[in-house]
Design brief:
Length: about 375
């Protein structure tokens, strides 16, 4: 065995069957009239882009989306054949890579369009691009008020093919902001008409991210772009109280107890001495810390599962180590499995739960499980 394959017991297990289940589940909920783009940017939200894309390709995802061309190249190098959209467009100098690796960029600026058109001139086929319209997200995209002008400018770039027209919602997960979501849809529909008036009839018209795909059927267009729901992260990014597809968590994170000790009442634990034992206690130390993505803000707040019971995190989570209170878990011993994200014996700690405690969303929790934590894919 290579030395770098012998590692501490801290791992993130990625359940590829759950991933495939989630795609099927959303597909049967949303229907077969749309294409399915699997968003695998940011290393598939921390789950491992290559392995996830391979499984999703085998399970009939129609498209993949990444943020950066670099991420698209990684997928192509590992044999992914389905079309890949680069949501974050491309940077000057990356044009040739889009041709070399058959990547489709999102375009939201004229400079990028002109540059790509020039590069495309030497190629036989026109280069497919998807145009992103900003209908209210306020981040990237052609401002919807300027889309007519943009379409006219595009019309003179004969080496580009506008294959897709898209927008992105700011608050599709929040039903109290439905008026704004509907306004974004109305603005986008107008832009589609303007493009049509300028001679563009894109093959793909897409608006919906995970929450919109589930909660806003009127936003489906003919393709939905799914990230979070594929990874089973519906608990915090889907609106509460609506019908939704069944989802299964894909990532679980576990380690083993490295050390167990008895500590008298009145002792303090860890940096800053933020926890004081109130009784004679059994304290376990586990090899995971904030560098691994077990966030420091979970100190004295989160719990982990040991032998089918919850053990509270006590004291500050440090860079490489965390302490847990095993006093109420008789027999807990060195080497016992510790579940930080996952379920056992009817108990579960979801990424969504940790996110709630840490003041963030589940995406940031799974993205934050660092590369120091090996991903173990099942089934192998
Ligand atoms: C990340 C992203 C998505 C996926 O969003 P989810 O909420 O994870 O489904 C869709 N569209 C765009 C443009 C994105 O950047």
């Amino acid at each position: 065995m290579l030395l770098d394959q012998i590692h501490r017991p801290t791992v993130a297990e990625i359940d590829l069957d759950a991933l495939a289940f989630n795609l099927r589940s959303v597909r049967s909920f949303v229907g077969d009239r749309v294409s399915y783009m699997a968003v695998v940017k940011a290393n598939a939200y921390g789950h491992g882009a290559v392995e996830c894309a391979k499984r999703l390709e085998a399970d009939d995802a129609d498209w993949f989306a990444v943020a950066l061309p670099e991420e698209g190249i990684e997928l192509r190098s590992s044999g992914i054949k389905k079309p890949i959209l680069c949501l974050g467009s491309f940077w000057p100098g990356q044009e040739q890579a889009l041709f070399d690796h058959d990547l489709t960029p999102v375009i939201f600026g004229l400079d990028a369009a002109v540059s790509l058109d020039r590069h495309a001139a030497g190629h036989r086929a026109r280069k497919n691009v998807h145009i992103k319209i900003d209908t209210g997200m306020g981040r990237v995209g052609v401002p919807w008020q300027e889309s007519n002008e943009f379409a006219k400018a595009l019309a003179s770039l004969s080496n580009l093919n506008v294959q897709g027209l898209m927008t992105h919602f700011a608050a599709a997960d929040d039903l109290s902001q439905n008026d704004f979501t509907n306004l974004q849809i109305a603005r986008f529909n107008r832009v589609v008409e303007e493009f049509s008036a300028n001679g563009f009839t894109p093959e793909f018209i897409d608006l919906a991210n995970s929450p919109a795909a589930v909660a806003h059927p009127e936003s489906h267009g003919n393709m939905v772009r799914l990230g979070g729901v594929l990874y089973g992260l519906g608990g915090d990014v889907l609106p509460a109280g609506i019908d939704k597809p069944e989802l299964r968590s894909v990532m679980s994170v576990s380690t083993q107890i490295a050390l167990v000790k008895r500590v008298s009442a009145g002792e303090t634990l860890g940096y800053g001495r933020t926890y004081t034992t109130t009784r004679e206690s059994v304290i376990g130390t586990i090899p995971i810390g904030y560098h691994d993505g077990f966030r420091r803000s979970l100190s004295n707040v989160a719990g982990v599962i040991v032998n089918g019971m919850i053990a509270p995190v006590v004291g500050r989570i440090s860079m490489d180590w965390t302490m847990i209170d095993l006093t109420d878990i008789p027999g807990a011993a060195i080497g016992d499995k510790v579940i930080l994200i996952g379920s056992e014996n009817g108990l579960s700690v979801r990424a969504e739960d940790l996110a709630g405690m840490a003041g963030t969303i589940s995406y940031e929790i799974t993205c934050g499980i660092s590369s120091r934590v090996p991903r173990v894919f099942v089934p192998r």
